[in-house]
Amino acid sequence: MRTLTGRVLILGADTRAFLSVVRSLGRYGLEVDVAWCPWNSPSLRSRYIRKVHALPEYRCDDTAWIRALVELLERERYDLVIGCNDACLLPLQQHRVEIEPAGRLDLLPDETFDICFDKRKTYDLAERLGIPVPRQRMIHSGAELEALAAEWGYPLVLKPRASVSLRDPSSKHYVTKVWAPADIAPALRDFDLAQGVPVQENFTGRGAGVEVLAKDGEVLTAFQHERVHEPLMGGGGSYRKSVALDPALLDATRRLMRALSYTGVAMVEFKRNRQTGAWALMEINSRFWGSLPLSLAAGIDFPRYLYEMVTTGRAEFPKTYREGIYARNWVMDLYWLKANLKADRSNPALMTLPLGEVAREIFHLVTLRETSDTLVLDDPAPAFSEIRQLLGGLLTARLRRIPTVRGEMRRRAERAIGRARRILFLCRGNICRSPFAEYALRLSAGEAVECASAGSFPVAGRRSPEAAIEAAGRLGVDLGPHRSRVLDREMAARADVILIFDRGQESTLEAWHPEAIGKVHYLGALDPEGPLEIADPYGSDAGDFLASYRRLEQLLALPAFQRPTASRGE
Q1: How many domains does the chain have?
Q2: What is the pTM assigned to this prediction?
Q3: Residues 548 and 533 in one domain
Q4: Selected catalytic residue, list 432, 433, 485, 502
Q5: Of the listed 14, 190, 246, 536, which one is catalytic?
Q6: Are residues 188 and 100 both part of a single domain?
Q7: Structural domain that includes position 492
């Protein structure tokens, strides 16, 4: 095995692409540092990580993260910085002018990135090159979507222009399928009709990906996989296999790379119909991809090849790999197995598999042709950590349904709230649930308790939705002046109690502010007869907001929040 020398910084968090890059480069002798990885990520257990750096979270309204990253790059002098997901790459791409002088970043030219990032521009390029794509049309209203359904039939596919936005790159925008007229209004809530919504004809087929390393538009090596298990309504696969390169898909990929003068790694995603042989382009992933563990297991080491191409100029790489190798993401696949077992097999639009075919997959293990995304012999700790988290999460969810456990959660919350002088309400965006709770408690408790609210969405200064303001006003709470705040370490430290609404905020605190987790309580725990989690009414009408706010009002009126009025100095 050829040993490399040098130092790299890897940005990311997941146990697929990020962990695979860490392992690949660490195995060949590179010093691997990581950042922008939550403390509870199983990937941090890898033996190939030299050091974990704490960097401020990205915020579009704060440049502290830029200053900290530049300082780190100037101090450590990395040979290469690699972002492994959109949440890391998008901020780097947008602020490359400030960051690139401090270190070498694995980034695309802005124009190339823009075409790959914006699915509409990707499709425009593909059509100019004569590459098949599903029929697509822009709509600006529910009526247009209904008319399109009458023309094309259901299901219709609503695709975001991009998977993430610069305002909040940590949140993904997912493809939505509309199956019937009743689905139209709920589906459109997550899209901006004024800007137009890309609607795509549903293309029935299995996902296939052609992964490449390219330089100046020329493909240096390529690999192909196809999905064996993928979400029943489409999406990233949890079980994949390596297959021979399809000449037509490889040719389409080469033409795209040449047109973009592409330099770097990419995964070009297609769908292929086994019955008709028809295929179509879905998107270009201009970064490392979730199925990367499979290509490594099959013998194509993309992270190492990228590093050598960028730092040494190497341009000749292996072009053969083992076909018929399988890789499974066990955490994702357990959910797929459950969904496939319960699925309606009479629905041809669902990507189901016969149960007998699923059962025969055991032979892939027996014949040593199946690998795990996470569990590898030379670095098993991340897999064990992932299993512990999965089992712990399932056990916790079940325990919290037991009346005695819910009762204890209620008593603990009541005691903590009763002693608290400073209460912080935390939700996702700090524009719906948490501000209502903050303002309502101020009205009822006066100066006896200091109330605040915040969110994990990394943008401050946003107004509450009009439907929220209207509903709150009917209950005597004025949300008009409210502007969102972003949770930071100082806010978490100042609070005596942090009241959350759902598991999302618990996960946020576990990942970014673990020192505050002992202060956390579910607001819904105060009512053991109702659901523990209080759903986010964002995107709903004033009636739904009113129902949500009435429940919050009832919880805030419970004895735990009642105390004699007193000045804060007493």
Answers
A1: 4
A2: 0.84
A3: yes
A4: 433
A5: 536
A6: no
A7: 402-561
